[in-house]
Amino acid sequence: MNKQNTSPYYQGDLIFIFLAFFAISVIAIYAAGQFGQYGSNAWTRQIIYYMVGVICIVAINYFDLEQLEKLSLYIFIGGIMLLILLKIAPAQIAGHDFAPIKNGAKSWFVLPGIGTFQPSEFMKIGLIMMLASVIGKATPRGKRTLEDDIFLLLKIAGVAAVPVGLIFLQDAGTAAVCMFIVVVMVFLSGVNWKLISLIGSVVVLLVAAVLAVIILFPDFAQKIGIQQYQINRITAWLPDSSSTANQAQTQDASGSDKYQVEQAIMAIGAGQIFGNGVKNLKVYVPEAQTDMIFSIIGEAFGFVGCAFVVIMFFFLIYRLVVLIDRIHPYSRFASFFCVGYTALIVIHTFQNIGMNIGVMPVTGIPLLFISFGGSSVLSVLIGFGIAYNASVQLTKYQSYLFK
């Protein structure tokens, strides 16, 4: 086909990635439905979430990149307002759940006739958009002074502090994802290496200190606001965690994170090379449609299915990295948005697959594009829509350049 006669809106590789993830998600959720955890029709609801996501992608492509950058502030402020509303909202209204408390925190709204709505998932996209706008408007790398770098870091910290703090009160795992995104965007923003090294050292020391407190002084950790289930997730990950009295007292063996990981590993192993098929799953895994969806893929489609999923994520990440470099001369906002969006995909993929195979602690982080959940699917597809828009605009810029 003559490339010049092809519509710039046809980005074949991104469309293929989208369709592949859609098919994998629906089939895996259908397979997990035999355990009855989210109902046998969860896969049909996932199709609906994807269809709404397609509408969002199409709508986003009616905007140009400059308009999306202008909208970033309003989306960011709207996300913060939703997080604040969630914090102050009553757990129930008229006897029905509205902002229920689970594990000592409120993480989502319950909307009648719609389901649950988790603001923190959408806040991740809003945060990436706002940071991309701030970094994109800064003086380009090579022209900045040390004072400019310090001022940029202060602006980034000011943007990130409120949403990350509010999210931490709901879900430490999601807050950690946001911090990872911020760190990656700072790292690639061109800030002086000395400043990055200093900040990185401080962050590493703080994380090490928090982990040490959780492991060595769990009672004190609870007093400073760390929830018991968060402590259990860390201690369950340790090699000798099975002998800790604290975990034994707070979790039943059948519902513990350790049990969940053991079942996930068993399910992946049971799939062997080619899997047992969609309707022949034998290993029960808690949270099969959400956190542990990768183990379902492993048992249903074996090593081949797992490898295909990993390859598709590598394909998407590679495509985004190429887009980051090529769109940068035309739109710094789009380039840095793709940096943050790539960081989001990387950390979710690494963490989720890692906890399914027992090399990372269980944090409740979904496998993006694949795990069941309206908020997760819609938020990641909104981000995908912005990246798709950037790819379309790049095609237009390049076609104009070579005419």
TrEMBL record:
Its main location: membrane. One of its GO terms (molecular function) is lipid-linked peptidoglycan transporter activity. InterPro entries: FtsW/RodA. One of its GO terms (biological process) is regulation of cell shape. This is FtsW/RodA/SpoVE family cell cycle protein. It comes from the Bacteria. One of its GO terms (cellular component) is plasma membrane. The chain crosses the membrane at residues 12-35, 47-64, 71-89, 122-138, 150-168, 174-191, 198-217, 300-321, 333-353, 365-388. The keyword Transmembrane helix applies. It is a multi-pass membrane protein. It is found in: Membrane. Keywords: Cell shape, Membrane, Transmembrane, Transmembrane helix. It comes from Bacillus aerius.
